[in-house]
Every structure is written in structure tokens, then in C-alpha cells.
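# nightly structure sweep
# worker-07 picked up a monomer target from the shared queue
# config: single-sequence mode, recycle default, output format = C-alpha cells
# input follows
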Amino acid sequence: MYRRLKPIIILLILIVLAIAMNPVGNSLENYYPQQKAMDIAALTIGNTVTSGMDVVDESKLRKVPVIYHPEYIMNDLKEQQFYDLFVALTTGAIETPLNELTGAHISSHGTAQGFEGPGILLVKGDKLVVSPPDTFVWGFKKAYTYGVKTKSGLEIWENGKTVKTVPYSDISNSTVPHNYVTVKTLQKWCNKADNGAKITLDYGLSNFNDNRNPVAPEDIETFFGNDVLEYMENYPSGSPVMVYAKFSTETVVGTGADVLGSYANYSTTARAYNAMQFVKGWNNTIIPPHTTSHGKETVGFQGISDPHAPEDSATHGVCPAARSLRSAVMSDGFPLPVGMSSGEYAVLYGFEPSAGILLKNTNDYPVKIVMWTTGSGAGLHIYTKAIALA
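# output follows
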């Protein structure tokens, strides 16, 4: 009988001990302030995290004399942390319980939990927490990795620091980033560039609307998915990139339509090609609220001989498509796009029809551009919808 009652007796003694020591601990707490929540973070505050990631470094949890926090004994009993309890009783020092320093969306084991999408590690009040993402999260494409030509090889700079030097003979897909600059193009650049010349090799995301920390190129797919990586690869540096969207409605807020038509002096086939490239350059572009965006830089246009145009060539065929886009966005309150006129010849000379034109969303909601065509030849019809996401 005594053997069966012994654990219960010990438990009762510990509970009484904790209760008895509690006033003493409370009186001493002012002299030994609680550990700060940010001190136990496994990541930099403001970093992006996903569910299941370790966000607490338990090795950083401070141990305090049991007499200062006897209530921690009760926590070990409640959590059935019997080994920690044994250590506390034999050494007189006890580890600060995680729940004293952590809050929302962090488990008792220090992992992020209970949310979807890319969260943020924050300190709120005196607790380490993970904040779930807002309905929309976007950042801006920014140069992150550079190649610098030197006498000894190509220096790779990341975030302003040299990380390695690659001998020119070793430049390959396995030694340098190649999402934006092919190895062949980089080798040609190295052969022609002067020592000290710099070329951008990769891009990260920064200046997020929710103030999270910048995200390095190698983490973009992990946190935001391959679709986001592919999106940003198509747009110029500085473009806004929607990395997370959990909207429930799509509302058409502007439309536009135009037809290619025919001009005796210019090839209809070439003009139709340019119109469809314009559509490809702008279709599925998302412009967050109060931001500006270019179209894709990965589309190309065909120059058509024109003695009246600067340099005797112009990308005829883009104007009907541009008029369609212009009508859709301006009917939603956008100002006249930079690089466009208000007339029939919608694209101004000197502006590349996709990456050169700039749209400004002055609304409080993101707008998605959807463009498509029907028909062919001179009868090619170009349609545009401006869609509000909410």
C-alpha cells in the first residue's frame, strides 16, 4: 500500500512546497526580471515562417533558482515534464516554461502552428508569437545577388557581401545562379566586361506591405511557392509581387475591347504578332493597392519598317491592344498609364509596350489584369478585364 501511495505523497509535497514558496518567489521577482521573449527566438524577429517550423531555440531558455519561481514546479507537473522536475529538485535551478514567453501560434514544443500561408515571427507585449498573414501580402522584386568581374574570377556577392569566387573556367549552372542570366550569356559578359564590372544574377523580395523582413532568393519558393518565383522572374526589378492572397471575391471593375484592323503599308501578320505579345505581356499581372507595375519583360516584339518612325521602325499592332488595356484600367480610376497617350496611337515612341509601360493602381484593393484575343488577322479582337480582388 505504501509503495502505491508514495508517488502521490511526493506529488502532494511538491504542490505544498510550490504553494509555500510562491510568496517568496513573487517578492524576489523584481530583483530577477523574467527573460525577454526575443532572447529565445530561433530566427530573427520579423522573419517569414510557415507552420511546422521551429521558432524557439530551447537551448536559450534561462534557468533560474527554484526559489525565485516555485510556480514553475507546478508547470512541470502539469506538462508531465518529470525529467525537468527531477533536475530542478536536485540542482535547485529550473527552466523557464515556454508558455511564459510564447503566445499565439507557437506550440508547447516551440514550433509554429495553427495558421495557413506565410506567417511572421514577432514579439507582442512580452510574448514571442507568430502572426498569420493578412488577406494579401506583397513585396517588391529587388536585386540581391551580383557577379563582379575580377582578375581571379567571378566574385559572387549576396546582400552586399562576397560569398565566393568562381574561376571563369568553372562557371556553370551548379556554381552560379541562372534563373535570370544563362551561363552562356554570363560567359559572354565576362569575356567583354572590364574588371570591377557588375552584373545582377538573382533577385529577392523586400519592402513587404506587412513590414516582414526581406526574403532571399533561395527562400522564395519555400515560403511562397513556385508560382510566385515564376511570376517575379517575368517582371522588371522594382515590380510588386503578390506572394499570398486569400480573397473570396473577384469583381470586374473595368473592361476594354478593340480590333486589330488592317493597314496597307504594314504586315497584318506582324501586327497581329505584336498585339498578341502585348496581351501575353500584361495578362495575369496583379497590381496591389497604391502601387505601380510594368508588364512582363520576358516578351519580345517585332519591329516593322516605317520611314515615319524614329529609327525607321516601330512595333505596329500594339496600339489596339494598348487601347483595350487603357480603357479597362482607366474605367476603374487608374490615371493614364505612363508610356501611353490618350489617342489612337496609344503607345508612345520610346516606351517598350510591356516592360516600359507603367500602370498605377490608386484603389484600396488589388487589381488583376486579364487579357485575351479571339479571331485572327485583321479580325483579331483584343479584350481586357480589370478585376478587383477582395
